[in-house]
Write a structure and sequence with these properties.
Blueprint lengths: L2 H13 L1 H4 L12 H11 L5 H13 L21 H11 L4 H13 L21 E5 L11 E5 L5 H4 L9 E5 L1 H6 L5 H5 L9 E3 L12 H10 L2 E4 H6 L9 E4 L4 E2 L1 H9 L3 E3 L7 E6 L4 E6 L19 H4 L10 E4 L2 E4 L11 H8 L19 H6 L1 H14 L7
Parallel strand pairs: 3-5, 3-6, 6-8, 7-9, 8-12
Antiparallel strand pairs: 1-2, 4-10, 9-10, 11-12
Length: 405
């Protein structure tokens, strides 16, 4: 398993220390209730590792938690038991207390199953980062439960970035404004959880770009900062012919769309469905009142309705919940290609995924992840000059000595 995964699991240890230490519970600061919600979402694989880690970073940065010293044995086990994620879910539901959960986690640390880095904040020093990445604590939801990352290009990465920008003047990426709005609380998901009536199925449209995991924050930032043209759901709904101006349309997690937008996208001859669960639910939009309303899909108005358009290429299950994307690949459908995983936690550190997006007409890149294990084999690299070129440029970035400058 990769370094980031170990760091995330270790961070899970820190998030519940407050409940374990009775003296800490008397402090003025306490763990916000939404942290347990995030732990539950993470346990159910509804959000990725990085979004969960953002919550942990909030606790660390605000001195809400303390990190205990835990002696470690001489063993070096790399296997992460599956019950780690189960424990996170049980803890979030109150089925186990903080003390019980911490005792299990501390055992894993002692046995070196979990390795805790002295640097608990995710930053540019991690070798897999292709972009300058930093935490933006100012961008939150109105209820204060939201955080996001900002991605910037690195000067030393210019040579590699050129690999991703060939011909992109005619490529467009679509920000999921309607989905961004649907995830606002109170909103659609409060209705799904039966904590709100049908009044939550009509909500205000959010016109900002401060999205997160559910709204493809990383994908949107990285592609637009590389130079891809960006438009929104609203642009397409108001003018479906706008897509005719582009040779390639890149869809993100555009889960909620209007019928006009659905028709325009599925009629375009070259679409990359970069995130699963796109085009999943039908909405109506009222620009006079600046609202969207759920019409069909996601178990509404009848529980057995899944895709609101009855779209035969819907790839929500099982791909939406594969957030690791370790074996990602594109596969062809009518008028486009689809990715078989949710790439939000992959797109900022995989040089070949970005190449596959840019050069999607070349199927060589669609299954490139299957060749990762051969990186160090000189013969393999000699046989694939295109791959070797990108790999060398990637190594140049991650070996740069002043990543934080």
């Amino acid at each position: 398993m990769n370094t980031l995964y170990f760091t995330i699991i270790a961070a899970l240890t820190f998030s519940v220390v407050l409940g374990f230490l009775s003296s800490v519970s008397a402090q003025e600061n306490s763990i916000p209730s939404w942290i347990k919600n995030i732990a539950g979402f993470w346990a159910d694989k509804q959000i990725g590792d990085k979004e969960f880690l953002q919550a942990i970073e909030y606790l660390i940065k605000n001195n809400i938690i303390v990190i205990p010293e835990t002696p470690q044995s001489n063993s070096d086990t790399k296997e992460i038991p599956s019950w780690i994620r189960n424990n996170a879910g049980w803890w979030s539901e109150g089925q186990i207390n903080d003390t019980t959960f911490i005792q299990g986690i501390q055992f894993l640390i002692k046995e070196r199953i979990l390795k805790i880095s002295s640097n608990h904040m995710v930053d540019d020093t991690l070798p897999e980062f292709l972009f300058k990445t930093y935490f933006d604590g100012k961008n939150t939801h109105p209820d204060g439960t939201y955080m996001r990352y900002i991605y910037e290009l690195k000067p030393e990465g210019s040579e590699l970035y050129e690999e991703y920008t060939v011909g992109i003047k005619k490529h467009v990426v679509v920000f999921p404004t309607f989905t961004h709005s649907a995830y606002t609380s109170p909103g659609f998901y409060d209705y799904y959880k039966k904590s709100c009536d049908k009044t939550c199925l009509s909500i205000n449209i959010r016109n900002d770009f401060d999205g997160g995991y559910q709204t493809s924050n990383a994908g949107w930032q990285i592609l637009t900062k590389l130079g891809y043209t960006g438009i929104t759901d609203i642009d397409i709904d108001k003018n479906p012919k706008i897509l005719d101006e582009y040779d390639k349309v890149i869809l993100l997690h555009n889960e909620y769309v209007t019928q006009k937008e659905f028709d325009a996208i599925t009629s375009h001859p070259n679409v990359i469905y970069l995130y699963p669960n796109a085009l999943y639910a039908k909405i109506d939009v009222d620009y006079d009142s600046n609202t969207i309303t759920l019409v069909r899909g996601h178990g509404y108005p009848i529980s057995n309705i899944t895709n609101g358009f009855n779209w035969k290429f819907d790839n929500t299950h099982p791909y939406e919940f594969d957030a690791d994307c370790l074996n990602w690949q594109f596969y062809p459908i009518e008028k486009g290609i689809m990715l078989n995983c949710y790439p939000e936690d992959r797109i900022w550190h995989d040089p070949f995924l970005l190449k596959a997006i840019n050069d999607s007409e070349n199927s060589f890149w669609w299954t490139i992840s299957k060749k990762y294990d051969n990186f160090e084999k000189e013969l393999f690299l000699d046989e694939n000059k295109m791959m070797l070129s990108i790999y060398k440029k990637y190594q140049k970035i991650i070996n740069y000595k002043s990543l934080n400058e």
